[in-house]
Automatic annotation (TrEMBL):
GO terms for molecular function: carboxylic ester hydrolase activity; fatty acyl-CoA hydrolase activity. The keyword Repeat applies. This is Acyl-CoA thioesterase 9. Residues 98-221, 301-413 form the HotDog ACOT-type domain. The gene is ACOT9. Its main location: mitochondrion. Keywords: Hydrolase, Mitochondrion, Repeat, Serine esterase, Transit peptide. Belongs to the acyl coenzyme A hydrolase family. CDD domains: BFIT_BACH (cd03442). It is found in: Mitochondrion. PROSITE patterns: HOTDOG_ACOT. InterPro entries: HOTDOG_ACOT (IPR033120), HotDog_dom_sf (IPR029069). One of its GO terms (cellular component) is mitochondrion. GO terms for biological process: acyl-CoA metabolic process.
Length: 451
């Protein structure tokens, strides 16, 4: 069971109090790692300043020039000798060793606002997803840095977006934003990263969201797993975070084992589907084939939207695959449009969870996105976005991601009804994701959200 959103915000805010937890040893501003996000340019190219993506390119040793890719990959082969043969051969790290703060100066640098701005004068959440993805990778590089090597021998990639819980709904494009985060748990080759986002209100940064990502380390050529440094908690708060990381891993294993792709629905879920089926039978007939919608309801098949993206080099990451944050942004924007079209009013995101990166997307691929509403309740809309790719040479489609977004509409939305068994499984899966959400956020009248 997931912790309450507000409790998450409270706990993480405590960890940032001077003299406690992660901030111990970082009281001197000159020693604290503070970067800039600088999103005025594309994710792979930044004009100026010390920013997250500049730092990532420096760590990995890649060029901004697309044509230099093969040369850079050849140079990275030489880093294999720096890889540890076992985790025991790596020095342990503390949570504060990977702690980073990143400033997005929307208030103090107005020229950065346009890329984050919506027509409703709010912030594009899709851009925030891109920033969180980049920050999560950089945090892991801080945890695994090898002082003897100029470049990191590891290739760190996003494996899973475990959850993103909104603590606050009102996001202003005219106030500075601060991100912070650190490694909170490690396995042999994987790392859990906790990140928070704050926005300046008056003279104080107030919590906006909490995010949990899972990253994996691979060798310098990104061909196989690599060991990461162990993590040592130093305080009761850090021990609690580490314990939660273990619980999160167990929850993910259980959730995967009970997937509807592997196991039949529970007795309660079967009853739910059968009752929905009975509610759609035409009372004028005695046929199972005659189906009619109840009042204020929509067939699930009529809630779909689709899009196609050509994956250009501009959207590549530091390993010359398509940037995971770009995939999340495109999926979110299609999901938002689906919720908006279904609910008839402007929705805002409440939670994001269980985004599994199953397969990397190559530059030049055709990216097919399919979105549909799979569960509704009151004014909540659960949207599932399926992502698959096909190369320009092949017509074979392969699934790369499945995204789950929970939106809240300004008014009550219709019920969604499955017509087929496959849609019934999508409905139950959507209901499971909705029920795993933290305590619902109350809609604020002064807020509207756009992608």
């Amino acid at each position: 069971m997931r912790r309450l959103a507000l409790r998450l915000c409270t706990l993480n805010k405590e960890l940032l109090i001077p003299g406690r937890g992660l901030t111990q040893g970082f009281q001197n501003p000159e020693k604290q790692r503070v970067f800039h996000m600088h999103e005025a340019c594309s994710p792979i190219h930044v004009n100026h300043g010390v920013c997250v993506r500049d730092k990532l390119r420096e760590i990995v040793g890649v060029s901004t020039n697309w044509r230099d890719h093969m040369k850079a990959m050849e140079e990275r082969k030489l880093l294999q000798s720096f890889l540890a043969k076992s985790q025991e051969g790596l020095p342990p790290r503390r949570m504060k060793d990977s702690y980073i703060e990143v400033l997005l100066p929307l208030g103090s640098q107005p020229e950065l606002r346009e890329k984050y701005l919506t027509v409703q004068n709010t912030i594009r959440f899709g851009r925030i997803l891109e920033d969180l993805d980049s920050l999560g990778v950089l945090i892991c590089y801080m945890h695994t840095r090898v002082h003897a090597a100029k470049m990191s021998p590891l290739s760190i990639v996003t494996a899973l977006v475990d959850k993103i819980d909104m603590c606050k709904t009102s996001l202003s494009p005219e106030q500075d934003i601060k991100f912070s985060g650190h490694v909170s748990w490690v396995g042999k080759t994987s790392m859990e990263v906790k990140m928070q986002m704050f926005q300046l209100h008056g003279n104080e940064f107030c919590p906006v969201l909490d995010a949990t990502f899972v990253m994996v380390a691979r060798d310098s050529e990104n061909k196989g797993p690599a060991f990461v440094n162990p993590l040592i908690p130093e305080s009761p708060e850090e021990e609690e975070l580490f314990r939660q990381g273990e619980l999160n891993k167990g929850r993910r294993v259980t959730f995967s084992a009970t997937s509807l792709l592997k196991m039949a629905p529970s007795a309660e879920e079967r009853t739910t589907i059968h009752e929905m089926f009975l509610n759609t039978l035409d009372p004028k007939t005695v046929s199972f084939r005659s189906r009619v919608l109840p009042p204020n309801a929509v067939w699930m098949e009529n809630s779909k939207l689709k899009s196609l993206e050509v994956c250009h080099p501009q959207e590549r990451n530091i390993f010359n695959r398509i940037f995971g944050g770009f995939l999340m942004r495109k999926a979110y924007e299609l999901g938002w449009a689906t919720a908006c079209n279904f609910g008839g009013s402007r929705p805002f995101v409440v939670a994001v969870d269980d985004i599994m990166f199953q397969k990397p997307v190559e530059v030049g691929s055709l990216l097919f996105l399919s979105s549909q509403v799979c569960f509704t309740k009151d004014n909540y809309i659960q949207v599932r976005v399926h992502s698959e790719v096909a190369s320009l040479e092949s017509k074979e489609h392969m699934t790369t991601n499945v995204f789950h977004f929970t939106f809240m509409s300004e008014k009550e939305v219709p019920l969604v009804f499955p017509r087929t068994y496959g849609e019934s499984m999508l409905y139950l899966d959507g209901k499971r994701h909705f029920n795993s959400m933290s305590v619902p956020v109350k809609l604020r009248k002064d807020f509207s959200e756009a992608p």
